[in-house]
Every structure is written in C-alpha cells, then in structure tokens.
C-alpha cells in the first residue's frame, strides 16, 4: 500500500532475489542469489562514488589508458576494482571479463558463474554530470568445465542473466534472470534497491529515435534511409523525436521505458560498430528481448552472434518491436 506517497510495502532486491529464486529454482543452492547480492553491493558502492565524485577529487583523468585506447577516468578505475574485488570475494565466479581489463580474469577455485561487465559505461560523460552506468551479463558453466575464456565466448542466448545500473537522477537497477526484467530504485535512506516495477515491457512502438547524427555521413544507405523516414515519414505521419545521451545505459533505459529505437550501426569508420558485444550489446539485447522488444544487427539478432574474442564490437539496433520491424524493411531492401 501507499501512505502519504510512501510505499509501506518495500521489497528490497535481496528479498526479491530470494523469493524469485525459491519460486523459479526451488532446488537452487543459493549461489546465484549470493552473486546477485554481491553485484548489488558493488553497484551501491559505485553509485556512492559517482555521487561524491566532484567532492572527492574522483573526477578527471587517472593518467592511464585501457585496451580501448581510451583515457581512463579515476571513477572507471574505482568501479572496475570494486566489481572485480566484490565478485572475486563472492566465491561464485570463475571468469571475469571487464571492459577495463585487457585479458579475462580467471579465478581458480571459483564458482560456476562468469560475469562480463562494463563497470562504468559512458565515462566520457562523467565530468559533466550526465548519467553513466554499469552493464553486466552472467554465464553459468558446467561443474566439469575448467574455468576458461571459453565460458564466456558463447552467444548471448546462453546468458543466465543480465543487468544494468543507471547512475542518473536516481539510481535504477534493471535485472533479469530469465523472466521479464524487474526495475529497482535505490533508496539512499535505506541503502537498499527497492522494487519499483516487477515486470518491465517495452512499448511495441515508440516515437523516439536515438543515434549519433554526427556520424551520418558514414552510414550505409539503409540506415540513412531509415533515419530519414524517422524524421520525415513517407506516410505523412508525425516525425520521431531525437534523443541521444551518448551513455548507452541512459539511452537504453529510456528506450525500454518510453519505446522507440536506439542505434549504434556499423559505418564506414567503425566497420563492426563501436559497442562491445560481450558486455554492452548482449546484456542489453537480453534485457530488451526479455521485456518484449528486439535487438538486431544489420544481419540478424544480436544474441545469435558467437563471439570470437572478449572485446569484439557489434552493430546494434534495439527497442520497440514495430520500430525494429520498420528498420528491417530498410535493412533487407535491395540496395
Ligand atoms: P558516440 C560511451 O562512450 C559509449 O561506450 C556508450 O555508452 C554510448 O552509447 C556510445 O559509446 C556513444 O558513442 O560515438 O556516440 O560518442
């Protein structure tokens, strides 16, 4: 119930995980629950660091670079270290892949789960206060399987869960372990993520398109024609609005809530797109499909791609089912 606008029935993420697991996996030993709670602690820590970044000299460059050749921000390094330490300590992980670490991290004597993550995506936005986020995917290996990078070089169809945490005007966690994604909001006074939407659904059509128009001279004909159709519909319908934050978690969260389409296509310069398959494309595709939306490349579903390397990139178009179908008509049209 709600009294004076306050929920008098708070369901925290740890409680939700236990109830959900008991319902969906009554024979589970609770290892996934331990892992999800560890992820929850790391996200709360990063949210706290992001909130006080300006006050504790956490803004600005750390003077180091990563495999992406990008300048690492201090917060990038803090977030990466927190996730690696908390996941290692959980005792549930055998392989970790982070955008900020060149090679996979193998944890000997670890657990059955592997986590691929971008600890702080959108970091170019940190210093100007624009929303940033954490994205992660969870794989499960057979007990007999040795811990190796092979545990995570699997298609997104083999993910057992995915989540993102948006450090925005409020801190939102969106999480699915096979069902429709649940949306939690961090209540700072409790220090807990509290359930706000039990089952998220992407509207089947939206009126927002989201793409970096600064790359338009690089797009292929199909993408150019589709974007033109968004701006000036040939059926005389109303144009779509352009919303582009430049932080994938913010752009995807808005797309799931409001509908529409988010695009980072391959283009003449970024021939495989810019976003990373393992810890950006796949987890977001898993969450959007779990919410009834779609996520494709120029060729087919993102989740069908079998990765060859942990930092490989993929083009991605995701969002409302009908908007993706309209895009597909352009992608499949004869050039
Ligand atoms: P561009 C942020 O650096 C990021 O990895 C994603 O969060 C975001 O969607 C994309 O890159 C933005 O890229 O080329 O439009 O600045």
In DSSP terms (H or I, runs of 4 or more residues), the helix count works out at 7
The proportion of residues in beta strands is 15-25%
Main β sheet profile:
8 strands, mixed
N-to-C series of helices and strands: EEHHEEHEEEEEEEEEHEHEHEEH
Count all strands and give the number: 17
Structural class: alpha+beta
> Averaged pLDDT, please?
93
Which small-molecule ligands are present, each listed once?
A: 6-O-phosphono-alpha-D-fructofuranose
Q: Unreliable stretches, pLDDT < 50, 5 or more residues?
A: none
Rg on CA atoms, Å = 20 Å
Helix content: 25-40%
Distance between the termini: 56 Å
Q: What is the molecular shape?
A: globular
- Give me the side-by-side strand order of the main sheet: 6-5-7-8-9-10-11-12
Pfam family, one: FBPase_C
Catalytic activity: beta-D-fructose 1,6-bisphosphate + H2O = beta-D-fructose 6-phosphate + phosphate
Keywords: Carbohydrate metabolism, Cytoplasm, Hydrolase, Magnesium, Metal-binding
Main location: cytoplasm
Any overview of this molecule?
The structure is a single chain. The chain is an alpha+beta fold. Helix content is 29%, strand content 24%. It has seven helices and 17 strands. The chain has an eight-stranded mixed sheet, with helices on both faces. α4 links the parallel β13 (208-210) and β14 (241-242). It is globular, with a radius of gyration of 20 Å. The model has no long low-confidence stretch (mean pLDDT 93). The chain binds 6-O-phosphono-alpha-D-fructofuranose. 6-O-phosphono-alpha-D-fructofuranose (P6P) is lined by residues 121-122, 124, 212, 246-248, 251, 274. 6-O-phosphono-alpha-D-fructofuranose binds at residues 121-122, 124, 212, 246-248, 251, 274.
């Amino acid at each position: 119930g709600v009294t004076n606008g306050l929920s008098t029935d708070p369901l925290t993420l740890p409680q939700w995980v236990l109830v959900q697991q008991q319902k969906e996996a009554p024979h589970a030993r609770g290892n996934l629950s331990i892992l999800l709670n560890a992820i929850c602690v790391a996200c709360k820590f990063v949210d706290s660091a992001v909130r006080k970044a300006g006050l504790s000299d956490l803004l600005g460059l750390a003077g180091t670079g990563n495999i992406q050749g990008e300048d690492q921000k201090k917060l990038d390094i803090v977030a990466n270290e927190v996730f690696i330490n908390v996941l290692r300590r959980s005792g549930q992980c055998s392989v970790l892949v982070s955008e900020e670490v060149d090679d996979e991290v193998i944890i000997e004597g670890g657990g059955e789960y592997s986590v691929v993550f971008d600890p702080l995506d959108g970091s170019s936005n940190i210093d100007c206060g624009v929303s940033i986020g954490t994205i992660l995917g969870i794989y499960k290996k057979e007990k007999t399987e040795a811990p190796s990078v092979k545990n995570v070089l699997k298609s997104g169809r083999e993910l057992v869960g995915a989540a993102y945490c948006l450090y925005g005007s409020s801190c939102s966690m969106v999480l699915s372990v096979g069902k429709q994604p649940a949306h939690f909001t961090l209540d700072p006074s409790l220090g807990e993520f509290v359930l706000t939407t039990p089952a998220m659904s992407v509207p089947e059509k939206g009126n927002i398109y989201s793409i970096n128009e600064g790359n338009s001279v690089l797009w292929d004909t199909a993408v150019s024609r589709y974007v033109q159709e968004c701006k000036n519909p040939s059926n005389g319908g109303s144009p779509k609005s352009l919303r582009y934050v430049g932080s994938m978690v913010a752009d995807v969260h808005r797309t799931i809530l409001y509908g529409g389409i988010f695009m980072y296509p391959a283009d003449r310069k970024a021939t495989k797109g810019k976003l990373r398959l393992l810890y950006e494309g796949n987890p977001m595709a898993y969450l959007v499909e779990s919410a009834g939306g779609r996520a494709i490349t120029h060729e087919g579903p993102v989740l069908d791609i079998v990765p060859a390397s942990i930092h490989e990139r993929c083009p991605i178009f995701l969002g409302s089912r009908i908007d993706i179908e309209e895009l597909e008509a352009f992608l499949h049209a004869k050039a």
